């Protein structure tokens, strides 16, 4: 059966439209490749879908720019002039913006003021006063944060000192405070916390004199106490 004639009009269904575009694009590129191989032609095809997705075919051993340059030389049409003019206009605007910004910076440093009239000088003064106000407020806030941080650190140090003094007072009042009877090498343990770590002072047991046969019994001294810091 012969195929029915297809009416050429916009396909309303988006899915069918995308499928048709993909199939016919591939067919068009296939024909362009056949022209390149069979006829030694240079072909360039640039396509954009309805979603602005680029699809391009270019004959082997050539580039799109070479095709466009050849088109310009043969047709005497400069396709780059408009783009070049737009680029030059953009460059001019950017240079002007840069020049104005440099002038404003110099004016805020007290330079180039002779170019300003009274109203412009007044406006510049108001802007700088507002800037100084914002900087001053930020400085005061930063200083307040530093003071609060210092207070917290001092409070922490004071608490540590109070706890240590309290432990020492309890130790002085009760000789048996903190004693550990583990049948081991130590007869007392004193614990306190310093700078985020916990320290334990251990004192050698007095009755272990048999380890030192050449020495008589002696009272515990500073050398009998060993302090260990346990990190938390």
TrEMBL record:
Keyword check for Transcription: yes
Gene Ontology terms: cellular component: nucleus
Residue span(s) of domain MADS-box: 1-61
Matching Pfam families: K-box, SRF-TF
One annotated GO molecular function: RNA polymerase II transcription regulatory region sequence-specific DNA binding
Subcellular location field: Nucleus
Keyword line: DNA-binding, Flowering, Nucleus, Transcription, Transcription regulation
Main location: nucleus
Domain K-box intervals: 84-174
GO biological process: floral organ development; positive regulation of transcription by RNA polymerase II
Listed name of the protein: APETALA3
Organism: Capsella rubella
């Amino acid at each position: 059966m012969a195929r029915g004639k297809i009416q050429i009009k916009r396909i309303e269904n988006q899915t069918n439209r995308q499928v048709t575009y993909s199939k016919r694009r591939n067919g068009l590129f296939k024909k362009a490749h056949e022209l390149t191989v069979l006829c030694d032609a240079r072909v360039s095809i640039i396509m954009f879908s309805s979603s602005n997705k680029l699809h391009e075919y270019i004959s082997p051993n050539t580039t799109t720019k070479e095709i466009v340059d050849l088109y310009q030389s043969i047709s005497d049409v400069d396709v780059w002039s408009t783009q070049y003019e737009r680029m030059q206009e953009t460059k001019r605007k950017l240079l002007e913006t840069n020049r104005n910004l440099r002038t404003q910076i110099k004016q805020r440093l007290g330079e180039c003021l002779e170019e300003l009239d009274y109203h412009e000088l007044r406006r510049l003064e108001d802007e700088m006063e507002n800037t100084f106000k914002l900087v001053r407020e930020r400085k005061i806030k930063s200083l307040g944060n530093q003071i609060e941080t210092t207070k917290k650190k001092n409070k922490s140090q004071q608490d540590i000192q109070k706890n240590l003094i309290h432990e020492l007072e309890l130790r002085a009042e009760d000789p048996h405070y903190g004693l550990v009877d583990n049948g081991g090498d130590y007869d007392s343990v004193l614990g306190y916390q310093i700078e985020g770590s916990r320290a334990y002072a251990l004192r050698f047991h007095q009755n272990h004199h048999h380890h030192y046969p050449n020495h008589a019994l002696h009272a515990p001294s500073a050398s009998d106490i060993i302090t260990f810091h346990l990190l938390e």
